[in-house]
Amino acid sequence: MMNRHTINNHILERFHKFLNENEGAPLVVIFDIGTNANRILIAPKRVPSGDSIQWIGHPYLFNDSGFYLLGEDVDRANKLSTRSHRLGKTISFIRFYVRELLEKGNLKKEDVHLFGTEIFRWLSNQDEVLNHFHKETGFPLTVLSEDEESYLSLISLQYTVGYTAEAHHEAPNVSDYDLVFLIDQGGGSTEVSYFDPKTPNIYEHKSIGKFGTQSLRDRFFDLDKQGNAIDPKHSQFTIPDQIDSLDSYIESILENWDYFEKTKDTKKLFYGMGSALHDMFKGKNSLAHNRNFSLNKIDDRIENLALNLNKFPKVSDLYALTRDDKLSESDKSKFKMFCGLPVYSRILQKFGVEEIQLAGFGLRYGIYIYLYAHLRAQLAKKEFPNIPIAYKTGSEGT
Hints:
Elements: H1 9-21, E1 27-33, E2 38-44, E3 62-66, H2 85-104, E4 107-116, H3 118-122, H4 126-137, E5 141-143, H5 146-160, E6 179-185, E7 190-196, E8 199-208, H6 213-222, H7 239-255, E9 268-273, H8 275-278, H9 285-288, E10 292-294, H10 295-309, H11 315-323, H12 329-351, E11 355-358, H13 363-372
Parallel strand pairs: 1-4, 4-5, 6-9, 9-11
Antiparallel strand pairs: 1-2, 2-3, 6-7, 7-8, 10-11
Helix pairs in contact: 5-13, 6-7, 6-12, 7-12, 10-12
């Protein structure tokens, strides 16, 4: 089980400070278990308004992430062993926080929520893994469908679209646009959705499976340009070979993509979620929200990242360092960005858009808003039978 020595001291101090400052206040906890990372949001039952200063985080909200790369333990048969070391670390992450919160008395068991995304949709032994999760944590893990994941990320953006943490950048006036789009790239998939700011309940979405940073990284190592399997341990392909292969794959997926064809004559504002785009800013969520990046800046970064990869002579050299966890943290981040950023670039090009705003509040915030916020009029309305809305059962809300 995870103990206080396995958590960064700074995070542990921040967590206990948060608990002390919220002593007696009813809290909820949302876990987002993904292909690359586990993310946690601890928040008051009363959801702040979308432009509230409380979205800045401390002392109102607590976030933490564990980058355990769970997707790397899924084998080619799409099976995840319940003895997986990464799965064990994921479960320990959950158990630690839940135990601390329950002991402190701020949390009721009905306000603990565990959600899984694309990686769990892949699994051929999904039932076995979910039963193991329930047994080891004491709580069920709900696997979000593509539809649910897209919707929940979208309402997070809808709710907080006007928020900015600092005076030196401003939120765009969404009423100046016909449609507001969101590109949400996770480790396993990428979701693209939009809403009409004048009529919030008009929205659509599309999910592209195996189009997240981890999935594209796996393709970089495992497949050649024609889609034939290669052995990354002994591959003689050069890095430029596989850069070209990955670029061709991304282009081929989007080339005949007729999604949102009816929106081509509209004025669009684009937002992006996901670690590859977020890492271009390198700051916490609340400060990242509504930062702006041009398409040219993204493409320049992709070019620089490709040059950095060329220091590895062959694919097998890069793979060996990755497999043995000997790649530097800097190179890990750069490789992740290299695999993920071209998706944003190609989608923006497809829609003829030259810039994108960072969306700092991701899926777990959308789940929080869906479960506990009363301000439904400003959101796309949808309800899912397997995710009951908590405030309907008497919880506090705005």
